[in-house]
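debug: dumping io for the single-chain case to check the tokenizer round-trip. Nothing else runs in this session.
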Amino acid sequence: MKPFRKLFTRSVAVQAAALFAVLALSLSLAVKSAGADTYTVYADEDYYSESTYFTTESSFNSYLQASSCTAVFSEATETLSNDIEFASAVAQSMWVYETEDESGLVKESRLLSKAEVDEIGNDNASINLLSSSETEIGSDTESYYKLTIVLEVTHNLTGGYYSVVGTATWAKILSASTKKSAEENFLDYIGLTWGGNGAFKASSYSASGKYYNGKTATMTRSISDAYSGYVWQFYEKSGYLGKELENATVQANISLIGAEQGKETNAKLTYIHTYGTTDSSVSISLSSNGGLAAGLSFSSSIKSWQIQIDVSGIPY
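debug: decoded output
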């Protein structure tokens, strides 16, 4: 088997060069380098996001220590050793605006643009967009959240498999308002997918989640495909007048089957948020290039939105 770290490092270098070339042609993206092993991409197209890419274990661990994901990843991932290599990781944050009526029913949910984030921060000094907040407007409530999704890939050299771990973390609600209500009646979805055109098969998978009141979230598997990915569904709230989801974590160990083909693929984490649709379904949508990770397709574009991140450079 080819050395994974060398292949991945070369792939990252090529991708970084290509990325900067694209950035030169686009005013919607900006890159801030935070060191040779970390760089951040700022995008403001359909919505504003900040994506930080980590190419070393130390840089990712530093991020985890400063975030709320440390315990989640320490529980979900194996202890790195001579037999287990860190491959890469990416963390993406975005900001969500929601309007709720007096009964707590969400009327609108959408991802904010950079201009909106700046405007809200300038006009409302009390709103901390690094976490979450809410303001009353008549009988409705305007709420702001920070949502972060993280994807990490490690390589178990002894077992010969790659461990793909993803999390979604909603910022903790600061207000004590009992009217504050996430969508306890509408499902959210989180999925892990990978490419390779059937070259990889999952040997194990798991999912877990918890709410801010300490209760365990029920993660129900809605799609199972050992050769392309898994999708889980769950409620964003623990129940009526309950607490919001603190995090959801999903993991899959995938092994290469058959001989190596000298190609590379990627793994993808997708999060789908719904706030008013029940007659809908999610499916895995294979890429036109079978070597790339599949995406998730949601049958309804009404009262829902989705985000995704990926880690590339996985050899097969």
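debug: round-trip ok. Confidence is low (pLDDT under 50) at residues 1-28, 129-137, 173-182.
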